């Protein structure tokens, strides 16, 4: 009261003026209280403008500091943190001034204070929400946090804060203890679980996803059941957003990542290798034993010259030792164009600088099908970038397909 000695005099003067107009004491109190509320609203609006201006001036001066501080202030400014802080200041001042009228309005004052407390609590929650969003935005500019699901963490924190605020308001307006709040909450828990089923599942799933490091922002994921095949652009409490390669966005419930299955290509990028697993089908009728003339002709193919010389010597020695009748090609040991072609592919990949030689390429002759005899190439490309990978893979199979004819082989093709 000593801080505001003029308030009591102003109230008395107002009472005298209103009494001159013939108003009763009860009506005078209501009119004075209405004027106080009106002045409070005007004070709030004016105080908010002044506070916003002062905070904006402070942030402008603070933004002249180093780069990280400027980025932080810019992120906070983007979510209007100064605006929400400015809302608090006049509410706090009104909370200090309104109790000075408790002598004149003992009955209405507790209700007004309760309303002010509710408004103050709402503004505090808005401010904390804006700070969390601003911090998430700022942390995403740092390499160490760029791929973390920060939105999920922020939403979990806000849920806890809303729960605490709800408990506070319950105690404030019902004059019951906090145990009563939890008792009421337990009574309606079944209804709440039904209403907030997705949110509860999302919270549990978000915690599991974060703890197990299953998905990060920027990961390439494939989830065929949801039609998702692209890069994760957002992870929040209830949903994960994936930007597909056709530039559409697929929204997946977070708990689906736990309950279902999906493919994450992150380990492929981290390893620096991308797998090639593709087949070329050879026409079976073109597979044959190689005559000495065929071998001599194929020795001009540089990648297998040494191999053919060594194998030819080894085979001739073995056939002579075992007195094999070579009037028929099927007798004894022989080279086939199919086997030499597989060796050529293996040597070609071994000399290809785009192929990772630490994971040795494998050339497999698969089980024959109605279309022909497949040769599967199993290798790893050093470049994981999609366009480069596809280019390298296409170049390898272009070469292999064109080279087949030099071994008297034909690639199978269906004709109508």
Molecular structure report:
The chain is an alpha+beta fold and 416 residues long. The protein folds into three domains: 5-209, no CATH class; 213-264, SH3 type barrels (Roll), CATH 2.30.30.60; 274-407, no CATH class. Helix content is 58%, strand content 11%. It has helices at 5-20, 25-62, 67-78, 81-97, 109-139, 150-174, 178-187, 189-195, 197-212, 254-259, 266-271, 292-298, 305-321, 337-350, 386-403; strands at 220-223, 228-235, 239-244, 249-253, 263-264, 274-282, 362-365, 373-381. The strands form two sheets. The protein has a five-stranded antiparallel sheet. The protein has a three-stranded antiparallel sheet with strand order 6-8-7. A hairpin with a 4-residue loop joins strand 3 (239-244) and strand 4. The protein is elongated.
């Amino acid at each position: 009261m000593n801080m505001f000695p003029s308030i009591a005099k102003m109230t008395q003067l107002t009472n005298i003026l209103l009494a001159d107009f013939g108003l009763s004491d009860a009506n005078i109190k209501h009119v004075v209280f209405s004027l106080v509320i009106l002045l409070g609203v005007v004070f709030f609006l004016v105080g908010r403008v002044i506070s916003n201006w002062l905070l904006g001036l402070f942030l402008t001066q603070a933004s002249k500091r180093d780069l990280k501080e400027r980025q932080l202030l810019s992120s906070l400014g983007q979510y209007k943190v100064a605006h929400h802080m400015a809302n608090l200041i006049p509410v706090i001042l009104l909370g200090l001034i309104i109790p000075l009228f408790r002598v004149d309005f003992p009955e209405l004052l507790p209700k007004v204070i309760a309303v002010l407390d509710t408004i103050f609590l709402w503004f505090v929650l808005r401010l904390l929400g804006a700070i969390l969003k601003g911090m998430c935005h700022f942390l995403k500019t740092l390499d160490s946090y760029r791929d973390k699901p920060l939105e999920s963490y922020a939403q979990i924190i806000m849920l806890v804060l809303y729960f605490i605020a709800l408990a506070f308001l319950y105690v404030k307006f019902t004059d019951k203890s906090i145990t009563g709040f939890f008792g009421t909450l337990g009574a309606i828990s079944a209804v709440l679980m039904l209403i907030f089923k997705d949110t509860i599942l999302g919270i549990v799933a978000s915690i599991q996803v974060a703890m197990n490091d299953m998905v990060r922002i920027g990961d390439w994921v494939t989830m065929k059941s949801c039609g998702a095949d692209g890069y994760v652009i957002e992870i929040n409490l209830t949903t994960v957003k994936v930007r597909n390669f056709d530039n559409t966005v697929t929204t997946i419930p977070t708990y689906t990542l736990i309950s279902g299955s999906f493919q994450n290509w992150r380990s492929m990028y981290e390893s620096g290798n991308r797998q090639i697993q593709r087949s070329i089908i050879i026409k079976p009728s073109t597979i044959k034993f190689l005559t000495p003339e065929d071998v001599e002709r194929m020795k001009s193919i540089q990648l297998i010259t040494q191999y053919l010389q060594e194998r030819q010597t080894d085979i001739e020695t073995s056939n002579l030792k075992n007195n094999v009748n070579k009037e028929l090609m099927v007798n004894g040991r022989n080279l086939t164009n199919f086997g030499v072609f597989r060796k050529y592919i293996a040597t070609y990949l071994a000399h290809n600088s785009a192929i990772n030689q630490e994971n040795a390429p494998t050339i497999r002759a698969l089980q024959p099908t109605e279309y022909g005899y497949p040769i599967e190439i199993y290798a790893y490309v050093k470049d994981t970038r999609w366009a480069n990978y596809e280019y390298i893979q296409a170049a390898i199979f272009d070469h292999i397909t064109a080279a087949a004819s030099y071994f008297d082989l034909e690639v199978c093709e269906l004709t109508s």
